[in-house]
Amino acid sequence: MNWSALTDPLFLTPFLTGLPLVVGLAWLGVLLRLRDEWLAALGLAHLATASGLAGLAAGIPAVLGAPLGALLGAAAKYRSGQRSNSAYALMILAGWSATLLIAANSALGESLAHAVVDGQLYFAGLRELSLAWLAAGLILAGLPVLSPALLRARFFPDHERANRLPAWRWHLGFDLLVALGVAAGTTTLGLMASFAFIFIPAQLAYHLGGNWRRTLWLSALLGVSGYILSFAVALVLDQPYGPLAVAMLLALSVLFRSTARKA
Question: Is 90 exceeded by the pLDDT of residue 25?
Fold first, then answer.
């Protein structure tokens, strides 16, 4: 076991890259669950992976290519008028096929495609750190503004039409925030890890939170706890971060659910 890795300054930048992201992703997950669009994380992550890989094939860093694909996907989803998981299911299929075709027909090969899918958190540098904090900052600044409108649209859908409100602003704004957050997460935490940090903390918080404010804070606490624990265990056991993070979040989910049943 590599205990010395926990105090190695080399891993400080990767740790600080993922930390703000998991908070932003957890809060996005709560609102996506509210809108019954939790599959968004996986759909946009697949598009981000495909565009990030395409960018690498063209000599563009994945940290720049991945957000472009996710943002275009979010814009196309809003343009189509669909507010359900159906649009994101199509994104999963499109992103998956594009990723494998790009890997098979470029000099990158499948090994780099797997690296993008599994995440590159340990190799995060200044570009990844900047994108992560930018995405997290926009999410944490934007959600308090967008949340009241999104809650009203969910529980009082006729209010927007009756008052002729410009609903496109908050719906599109939220879709773009999700796209940016997922793209930043995909290029660092990995495709499935990003999905796990959106889906599992929000799912648990919905069952345990009790009210909206507590649900938001509980989802963030669960996301941060899962992130720190999996980061430490991955370093000590010398394991890839993405798959281990998913396993740790699943273990936390089982633990909290079993504790809740006993209570």
Answer: yes
- Torsion of the alpha carbons at 201, 12, 65 and 118, rounded to the nearest 10: -60
CA dist., res. 103 & res. 195, Å (int): 22
Sequence-distant (≥ 6) Cβ neighbours of residue 210 within 8 angstroms: none
Other Cβ atoms less than 10 A from the Cβ of 51: the count is 28
Alpha-carbon gap, residue 40 to 183, rounded angstroms: 12
Q: Where are the beta strands (DSSP E) in the chain?
A: none
What's the gap between Cα 57 and its chain centre? 24
- Domains of the chain (ranges; CATH) run 3-262 (1.10.3470.10)
- Given a contact cutoff of 8 angstroms between Cβ atoms, the answer to whether 225 and 252 are in contact is yes
d(CA 45, CA 43): 5
Note the pTM of the prediction, 2 decimals. 0.81
